[in-house]
Design a protein that fits this description.
about 220 residues; alpha/beta; Rossmann fold; Arc Repressor Mutant, subunit A; 2 domains; 6-stranded parallel β-sheet; globular
């Protein structure tokens, strides 16, 4: 990395103390780094128009955007800028879904400081990064084979997004507007989700997600 070119990072995190700690860590490694702090998606969007950015470092559980939807929202707001996710979750499926939706890296919040710095370097330079704990879980999942696959793992990335929004109580029309799809397309996705999860209603979808921790792994 060329240290003569100051790095510009948007740090999106709604907890001030954690945000302060990450910003200090970044400045200790790269003294001339510019860290623009944001606590909401709306603030990050405003920063997006203020010049060139090298990286977005973001929590996904925000006051105005939730879970994997934050990945889609951020990649739309800052196209071409690598997104490194900081999450409370180390669930491999959650990490994979985040990266399928456009994240360049996924890091558990309880990881080592050195791992965060490594992840920043790699994703900023165009690479990808998954934290060691998540990688271990992924390896275990692969060794278990397809026989251990859960129903929601058969969903496409778009179907998975629709599933989470339905589980949160969103209506088909609202999901269609949010995802820039037609209501007919969302209805088709919903039918596929019901079939693949073997449930018969939105309540069933919500119960399925809660029982498997899919809704709680949104930070």
């Amino acid at each position: 990395m060329d240290k003569r070119v100051p790095m510009r990072i948007i740090l999106l995190e709604d907890h001030p103390i954690f945000r302060f700690g990450v910003a200090q860590l970044l400045r200790s490694r790269w003294p001339d780094v510019e860290v623009a702090e944001a606590a909401t998606l709306a603030e990050a969007r405003r920063l997006a128009g203020s010049g060139r950015w090298d990286l977005v470092l973001a929590d996904l559980n925000l006051p105005d955007s939730h879970g994997l939807e934050s990945v889609a929202n951020l990649t739309r707001a800052l196209p071409g800028v690598p997104l490194l996710v900081l999450s409370l979750s180390s669930e491999p499926d959650y990490a994979l879904r985040a990266m399928q939706l456009g994240a360049a890296g996924f890091l558990a919040k309880d990881g080592a400081a050195s791992e965060l710095l490594t992840a920043v370097e790699r994703t900023r330079e165009g690479g990808r990064y998954i934290s060691a704990r998540v990688a271990d879980h992924l390896a275990s999942r692969m060794l278990e084979g397809a026989a251990g696959e859960q129903p929601h793992e058969q969903l496409s990335p778009q179907e998975y997004r629709v599933m989470l929004l339905l589980a949160q109580g969103e209506r088909v029309q609202d999901i269609a507007e949010h995802m820039h799809l037609s209501p007919k397309t969302v209805t088709t996705y919903r039918a596929r989700i019901l079939d693949k999860l073997d449930v018969d209603s939105n309540v069933g979808i919500a119960m399925y997600c809660r029982e498997r921790g899919l809704m709680s792994t949104s930070g």
